[in-house]
């Protein structure tokens, strides 16, 4: 391994995970090999922490280092299993996002460290998908009952084409106030303006005493751009978005072609 790279940040969906939401044997073997060489790994994902615990165990990362979840809103210390960084949205922000959802006619749900919350008694199919994907329980609550809930992100949900139409209706005020991003085709997310993968990766690297030029980041989507910009060596997936590719130093193979393993072998050695 190059003396430069000490920390490798990996996105999950569309990057480490293939189209079947699994990790290829080639990717597993390459990660194990780099761990043996002393390289640290940090998973940086839009998923909630509960949705990545099985992946952490599969990769043998439990009990060491950190994990970034909720697109940079939360950082877990895997040794203590404690949250060491959290940027939730205040309840007043939820109220104005709720008003916006009604104004433009789109369903939403909330992701929190306590699970998924919705005010809809008829569960949206995309909310149900989020629950399945992240093994996270859906809690139906009245809006006023969410006053004390840590709101890590709010997701507008709909079919991809319809969601794009609704995104276009979001006023510039919200674009200035929040960190907005489309993660999966059916999810449009509202986060604290300061919450992103790049700033979270900076926190992790500082805690480990690692410089930006000693960090490699691999991602595929617009929500990975901030960490690709932060890392000294940045790699976009072959299946990645145009923004991700433009932000990266290199482009690897797709997530269905062991793109992570290829990137590590080619640019971290």
UniProtKB/TrEMBL annotation:
Identification of the protein by name: HAD family phosphatase
GO cellular component, one term: cytosol
PANTHER family to which the protein is assigned, alphabetical: HAD SUPERFAMILY HYDROLASE-LIKE, TYPE 3 (PTHR10000:SF8), PHOSPHOSERINE PHOSPHATASE (PTHR10000)
Gene3D superfamilies found in the cross-reference section: 3.30.1240.10, HAD superfamily/HAD-like
UniProt GO molecular function: magnesium ion binding; phosphatase activity
């Amino acid at each position: 391994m190059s003396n430069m790279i000490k920390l490798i940040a990996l996105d999950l969906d569309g990057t480490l995970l293939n189209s079947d939401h699994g990790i290829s044997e080639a990717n597993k073997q390459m990660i194990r090999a780099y761990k043996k060489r002393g390289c640290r790994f940090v998973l940086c994902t839009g998923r909630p922490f509960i949705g990545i615990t099985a992946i952490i165990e599969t990769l043998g990362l439990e009990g060491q280092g950190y994990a970034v979840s909720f697109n940079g809103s939360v950082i877990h210390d895997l040794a203590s299993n404690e949250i060491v960084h959290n940027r939730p949205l205040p309840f007043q922000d939820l109220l104005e996002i709720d008003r916006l959802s009604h104004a433009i006619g789109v369903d939403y749900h909330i992701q929190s460290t306590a699970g998924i919350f919705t005010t809809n008694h008829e569960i949206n199919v995309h909310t149900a998908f989020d629950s399945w994907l992240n093994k996270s329980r859906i809690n139906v609550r009245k809006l006023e009952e969410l006053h004390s809930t840590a709101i890590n992100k709010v997701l507008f949900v709909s079919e991809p084409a319809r969601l794009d139409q609704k995104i276009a209706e979001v006023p510039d005020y919200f674009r200035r106030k929040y960190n907005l991003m489309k993660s999966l085709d059916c999810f449009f997310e509202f986060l604290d303006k300061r919450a992103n993968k790049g700033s979270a990766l900076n926190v992790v690297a500082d805690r480990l005493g690692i410089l930006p030029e000693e960090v490699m980041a691999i991602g595929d989507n617009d929500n990975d751009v901030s960490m690709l910009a932060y890392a000294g060596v940045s790699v976009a997936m072959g299946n990645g978005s145009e923004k991700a590719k433009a932000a990266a130093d290199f482009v690897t193979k797709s997530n269905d072609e062991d793109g992570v393993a290829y990137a590590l072998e080619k640019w971290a050695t």
